[in-house]
Amino acid sequence: MARLNRRHFLQTSSAVAAAGVFAGTSSLSRAQDSPNERPVFATIGLRNQGWTITDKSTKYADFAAFADVDANVLEMVSGRLKQKTGKAAEGYSDYRKVLERSDIDAVMIAAPDHWHTKISIEAMLAGKDVYCEKPLTLTIDEGKQIEKVVKQTGRVFQVGTMQRTENDQRFLKAIALIRAGRIGEIRKVTCGINGASGSPVIPAIDVPKGLDWDMWLGPAPKASYRALPEMRQGYGGGVPLYTNCHYAWRNWYEYSGGQMNDWGAHHVDIAFWALGAGDSGPNKITPVSYSLPVEYKDGYPAVDDQYNSPTKFEIHANMPGDIPLVITSEGDNGILFEGTKGRFFVNRGRLSGKPVEDMESNPLPEGAVEEVYGGPVSENHTANFIEGMRSRKQPISDVWSHNRMLETCHLANISIRLGRELNWDPAKREIIGDEQANAFLSRESRKGYEIEM
Description:
globular; 34% helix
């Protein structure tokens, strides 16, 4: 009977469907109060962001299963869920056991980036809707694979670029300001996404107890586990500061794309949305300046025992209408929009500039923010995902616009690795006249971890 009720949850709510692609939170009240209206979720990849998205989703969904290759993390997060909700989730070291369960409606994926595409595709083919953390892919071709399976299966897919929904609607207001003509025509957009640090030489050591290192590597090349004794403090703390595993994997091209794909996936996303470039992209990527922490040869790091993603950079992407999109490690973290009539800055903590100040006497038109969002703004990103599950329409962070944006971040990294400008065909989604650069649009998966579609 419970499964029938969840099926009812997914197939009903005509009011939500009638509201359009993106719906607000009012129709979630029943799901919060009635177990029969709540979908059943599982989370794959639990540390840091995995718990964050799980924690904020317990208001709307029940979690029946967790999966993580680190037994210590699995135990820790399982305990947090039991303490918060009074309910336990079955724990698995192998995510495929989660996908085999018929009682799970959707999975939330917060594994490292190099796992996103394989797990997402397998989840959709198993009949699950998907919420996957950003950046969605490790390569441009992976994005095409995900798009194909979303279309093939009809699954609802939310990317975790939550700035589209959350952060006190600052980013939505920023886009509403632009659409209302408050800065005239856009002339330049600058995304500040912070720099990074290199690392000392990190030795290969024994794999920590409880960690399935081979499974953690998965599709990535075979490698030794590396770490130094110093521990990370603050967000993501409790693990080695210098390692090729927990948290610091973001600094390795084998598993991620450095700051370009980490913060870039947030701010470049908003820039694309504001520019109306969700189905296009740049025609040229120019690496104006950059610093790499190790030597490179033919686009690949010459050593395997230090962080290898860029520490500093300034990238220019030539957007439609010849509008320059600058991605830089310098300055404040956030987005500066400059137009013919003014400029303003937005990040997660502030929305500032004269056009913002002018709203006191000249507020945005009623419904301007909702028009940007496509309907009433959801309470949080998970709420929007569940509304999409109900209506069977794609939520606010769809895979197509995300991949178009992320292509620019991937191309920026390729231009840095090869040290040259790239000409991009956004229609064909390939680099023009550069066979070597095009080879970086995909990566071969390690044997036994191939993506099967």
